[in-house]
Amino acid sequence: MSIPVSRQAAALSLAFAAAASVHADPVPDTIVVTATRTPQGAEEVIPDTVIVTSDDIAHAGAGSVADVLRRQRGIEIVRNGGAGTSTSVYLRGANSNQVVVLVDGVRIGSATTGAASWNAIPLSAVDHIEIVYGPLSSLYGADAIGGVVQIFTKQGQGRPSFSAGAAGGTYGTNRYDAGVVGSTDGEHAVTYALGGAREESDGFSSTRPGSSSYNPDDDGYTRTTVNGRVTMRLAEGHEIGAQFLKSRLSAQYDNGKSAFDARNRQEVDSYAVFLNDRFLPNWRSSVQAARSEDKLGSFTSTAPSGTTQLNTRQDEFTWQNTFDLDGATLQVLANHRKEQVLSSSVANLNRSRITNAVAAAYDVRRGSHLLDVSARNDWFEYGAKTTGAIGYGYEFTQDLRATASVGTSFRAPTFNELFYPGYGLASNKPERGRNAEAGVQYRLAGVDLRANYYRNRLTDMIVSVTPCPSRTGSCAYNVDHALLEGLTLAADTRIGNLGLRASADLQNPRDETTGKQLARRARRHASVAADYSLGQVDSGVELQASGHRFDDAGNAYRLGGYGLLNLYTTWHLTRDWSLLARVDNAADKHYELARNYGTAGRSWFAGIRYGIR
């Protein structure tokens, strides 16, 4: 195994585990949905999974969804400036377009880039996040090579509850949000949740001297969001519902010394209607019709040539049936997805494609044995693509469990990679992934320890090559083989009012065709965090560290490693009122996530909140 294991990182994890090996309060079981598309206890999930809780999100301050994710194991981000600029999220070294992103079960992302618009996803609407690592194409279809991230918005229950918050901080950042959740009683009970938010910031220069686009002015952003969900019980075991999320982002960026205020206007919308039925005690059916849209307008001058617009849409229909058997669960689903570019300044991209799929999964939980088997077939214009996965877990004791799994995955070429003039090739094939991994989970004296080794080999990777095999210049082309290999170590515990957690990723994401390290991915990154509650005050400290990376595929431009220190505290004034203060990058570390792009220095954020978040 050619993983560059860092002595410092390994020592850090071992020291943390040793220090935390004292009595801790038991952690209640948590329900996970994404790993198998059906609710199950976290202790029964075979894939490596992380749950970002509502408390984690509440402590995030002015951060974005991407900022919250980067504090989790196995995740790195790249941003071209501040929180409103283009953002990429890497899972276990996989590209941003090799990760499926869902909002309450609705797939989001651009049909032209293949990636979700992370900068436009509002943190204020999020209740919790589930991250499942590894290939899940056998459950979710194309693009689930590195994993699946599912974002859950707030849902209503109980008596009506109102919440609101206002906060501000460095770079002229301000945020306001409000929401109401609740439910009614009776035979046809209705649950509801509605929220809205506005966030604005003067920002900082998105580029640094050395960039051809450098302009020293500040590049701010404004983001407005509204989201909602409502369900109604039709009868015992039967409910109907609808949900939506609409986010609008206007973000400035640098375009050299031009006097025109260059900016992007981005919209991310998702809608769904669904029907959940329990026809028999052991038969549950779920039907969902969903639509998501990703719209991006770029403005660099007042001339028509300075305006570009790119609108894409995904329509999806899913029928899922789940049968609860004796100690097992059988799941069968059918899926229809249509991707299309609605309008583009590049006429050749105004296209659509349809994917139809059927899938089945069988999960067994008997005694000390856990088994997950799944298979899926997708039909599209390339023909058919079959993926499968099998995972096995064995519980040696109540505190020790080992798992192993293998699975295949694929990513469909984006419209850019197929049809963009001077870049795309219509002959490009889907990327393919084949993953094998093994893990162990051990609870020692109240400390949860976890280690996962994975080896994900990718073939037919689409990269930009020069010269292009079929024409002059460069183009997107199936040429590369890549290996995403790594070891993830994690530990967490709670000792009374003190919570401790740490993780270290030792990985070697590399292009096997060239032998180079994949761009913008470090071989080592780690995090350590502690939180403590004293009376009505919750305080915490976070340390994030990353090794060096390269900004380009040829490994010519080296980006130095960095360490970030973050601090936060929440004071619960009463049952309903609380104050939050947070300092990010407290040591004022200067670093780059992308070459010649700016990052935030020491920044603070403080606010007041009424109601339960």
Automatic annotation (TrEMBL):
Stretch forming the signal peptide: 1-24
Disordered, as annotated region: 199-224
Biased composition (Polar residues): 203-215
InterPro entries, alphabetized: Beta-barrel_TonB (IPR000531), Beta-barrel_TonB_sf (IPR036942), Plug_dom (IPR012910), Plug_dom_sf (IPR037066), TonB-dep_rcpt-like (IPR039426), TonB_box_CS (IPR010916)
Localization per record: Cell outer membrane
UniProt entry keywords in alphabetical sequence: Cell outer membrane, Ion transport, Membrane, Receptor, Signal, TonB box, Transmembrane, Transmembrane beta strand, Transport
The UniProt record lists the keyword Transport: yes
Ranges of residues in domain TonB-dependent receptor-like beta-barrel: 306-585
Segments carrying motif TonB box: 30-36
Presence of the UniProt keyword Secreted in the record: no
Membrane topology: Multi-pass membrane protein
Coiled coil: none
Origin: domain of life: Bacteria
Pfam families: Plug (PF07715), TonB_dep_Rec_b-barrel (PF00593)
Domain TonB-dependent receptor plug: 50-148
Membership in a protein family: Belongs to the TonB-dependent receptor family.
Protein name: TonB-dependent receptor
Species of provenance: Telluria antibiotica
